Amino acid sequence: MTKLTGGQIVAQMLKQNGVEYVAGIPGHGIWSFTDAFLEEGSEIPFIQVFHEQSAVHLADGYYRVAGKPMAATTSIGAGAANTVLGLATAYSDSTSVLVITGGPPTHMRGHGLLQELERYTDNDFPKVAEAVSKRHWVATRVEELPFVMHRAFSTMLTGRPGPAHIEIPMDVQAEAADVELHDLAQRLPVGIPQPDPQAVERATEVLLGAERPVIVVGGGAITSNSAEEVLRLAQKWSIPVVTTWNGKSAFPEDHDLFAGSVGQTGTPVGNSIASRADVIISIGCRFTDWSSSSYAQGVTFSIPPAKLIHIDIDPHEIGKNYPAEVGIVADAKPTVAAITDALPTAGPDRAEYLGELAGLKEEWEQKLATRRDSDRFPFTSQRPLGALRNVMERDGIIVAGSGNTQGAVKQTFPVYEPRTHLTSGGFSSMGWAIPAAIGAKLAAPDRQVACVVGDGDFLMTAQEIGICVTHNIPVVFIVQNNAGFMSIRGGQRKQTSRHIGTEFNHPDGSPYSPDYKALGAAFGLESYRVDDPADLEDTYRKAFAANAPVLIEVPTDRDAAGPWVPGWWDFPVPAYIEDERQDEYWSTRAQEQHL
User: Fold this and answer.
1) What separation in angstroms does the CA of 36 have from each of 11, 33, 125, 168, 184?
2) Which of 287, 413, 532, 570 is least enclosed, having the fewest CB within 10 Å?
3) What pLDDT score does 126 carry?
4) DSSP string, 247-267
């Protein structure tokens, strides 16, 4: 037994459990905890951010590359409330992050002390965090902190990943007790969930009868480190592979069997192959509306009549949006391996099917080239991405912001290795990419990291580029500047032929934009603005060679700002619009197969 304060307990257990960094802002409600990082035996590098939301996003990006959790911490009240968007993003995308916030002293709860929410229930913030956490705790005694800490790690590291939240009252941080720190190795289950042999046998039978199978890989394929198994299954049985937002990078995109991405802003190839498949093998995919074209039959998927083999570690997802011919609740890695091993040695002849795939890919390449290789200025969204791919190393990491940039990266920027494409998928949070890219670089300091964001996204957390200066973190930030929220404008114009609140304009209607090159320089970054297509690749090379934080502004055409939209997304059309858009909306909505 050792006498330790609550802050010392948590700090020492973070270090013992492999946490390499803590990010946050040490407001008054967490001082006694953060001070413990200066104590011998619990020293952990502290990454000071400029907004609490960014601390969680930074830890999120770190996890997606490293595959292990990082901690974020902040004060009571406003600081804690600012973590909610970060928690929600991590929760939606199933990433492990530990968020530790301060709380009112236990003897002062309910008195309305500074920053306490107490008009409905004393100390009400934990209920806010509850909806966006896999599990949360409020520690009320120093003695219970070892237990709370090992339960938090168990929650994050087992089953479907997700963020955990711990509130530690100010007095619990400061007071001391005789405690024994729990050994995490003795508190976690050994091994991973294996598939039911009968389910594997049934899945194999279904696959043996398939003529046009397709593999759909989601974020769970990356989390479970299943890329090698997916590749082996695809090659053994000649199965095309499509990816979702967070599944991108689970399969090498220069492979003959890669068919593209699926959904509203997937690729024509991915949607065509997936929609005409007779058997679909889903690996760690939860079939969101984005990846399924809002479940419109035949646009991205045709389930049924297509038979679904649904592999997921979370039973909540099996059968949620589509009926499963075979639902397998298990870790994807052993499950895919078991199915592959159960198949005959010699696969079927799919020459005609794969020839069709090759033809579709060639058609898509020709269409993509019209924007990716265009020398128009301001640039298309795709032109800077094509140049970036030519310069970045094969294992370089691209972090994509929300909106048009997100879709353009999905379609235009091929990736080849797991954990080299990061984006905020299910929550699609603006402001996520900049801090997430910083976390990615902390997790992989020897690899190139490029953060590509639109200017609207950039302005949400632009101040965090300063972290790269204060902590010497060499991330390359590429700002696609089209002076507005062009993804939102595009949707508005398609739906109603007009737009509101989406363009950054002067009173006379001319575009308004900060000088991003000057902004980057003001923060201490080496900064560029590229106005000539011929300078793109050279500028990128200089940026990566600098081994320092760099900002590159890329002026982007407002009307060539986004990806193609080969799928469908359920945008209800206002009743006062009485033209063909109403007919199109209701006829497509009638094809949705999600009830």
Assistant:
1) 6, 5, 24, 14, 20
2) 532
3) 82
4) TTTSS-TTSTTEEEE-STTS-
Beta strands at 176-179 and 2-5: parallel, antiparallel or unpaired: antiparallel
Phi, psi (5° rounding) for residue 135?
-165, 150
- Dist. CA 118–CA 112, nearest whole Å: 6
Spatial contact of 285 and 291, defined as CB atoms under 8 Å apart: yes
Sign for the pseudo-dihedral over CA of 101, 105, 108, 114: negative
SS3 459: coil
Phi and psi dihedrals of 550, rounded to 5? -135, 140
- Alpha carbon distance 458, 436 (integer Å): 12
552 SS3 class: strand
Tokens standing for residue 72:
């974020």
Q: What is the pLDDT of residue 115?
A: 62
Strands 550-555 and 476-481: parallel
DSSP-assigned letters across all residues of 73-136 = EE-STHHHHTTHHHHHHHHHHT---EEEEEE--TTTTTS--TT---SSSSS-HHHHHHTTSSEE
Question: How many CB atoms sit inside 10 A of residue 360's CB?
Answer: 20
Q: What pLDDT shows up at residue 117?
A: 64
Q: What is the mean pLDDT of the chain?
A: 93
Which helix (H) or strand (E) element contains residue 490? helix 486-496
Give the per-residue pLDDT at 594: 67
Tokens of 406: 């997100």
Q: How far is CA 376 from CA 25, 371, 540, 552, 556, in A?
A: 44, 9, 19, 18, 10
Q: What are the distances in angstroms from CA 127 to CA 74, 91, 358, 429?
A: 17, 15, 52, 22
Element (H, E) at 283: strand 279-283
List, in sequence order, every residue forming a beta bridge with 137; answer none if it has no partner: 166
Beta-bridge partner residues of 98: 71, 164
Give the model's pLDDT for residue 105: 80
One DSSP character per residue, 160-190 reads: S---EEEEEEHHHHH-EEEE----GGGTS-S
Rounded mean pLDDT for each run of 10 residues along the chain, 595 residues in total? 92 95 94 92 93 97 97 92 95 96 79 64 80 94 96 94 95 93 89 95 96 97 97 97 96 98 95 97 95 93 96 95 96 97 91 97 97 95 97 98 93 97 90 98 98 96 97 97 90 87 92 97 98 97 98 94 86 88 87 77
Distance CA(334)–CA(232), nearest Å, equals: 12
509-530: pLDDT as tens digits: 999 999 999 999 999 999 999 9
Query: Read out DSSP for 324-350?
Result: -SEEEES-HHHHHHHHHHHS-SSPP--
Residue 290's nearest CA partner among 268, 267, 264, 272 is 264
From the list 285, 225, 217, 289, the residue with the least C-alpha distance to 253 is 217
Predicted confidence at residue 595, as pLDDT, reads 64
313: three-class secondary structure by DSSP: coil
**Interatomic CA distance for residues 19 and 44, integer angstroms:** 8
Task: Give me the numbers of helices (H) and strands (E) for the chain, helices first please.
Answer: 24, 20
pLDDT at residue 462, as a whole number: 97
Q: Measured between alpha carbons, how far is 88 from 82 in angstroms, rounded to an integer?
A: 11
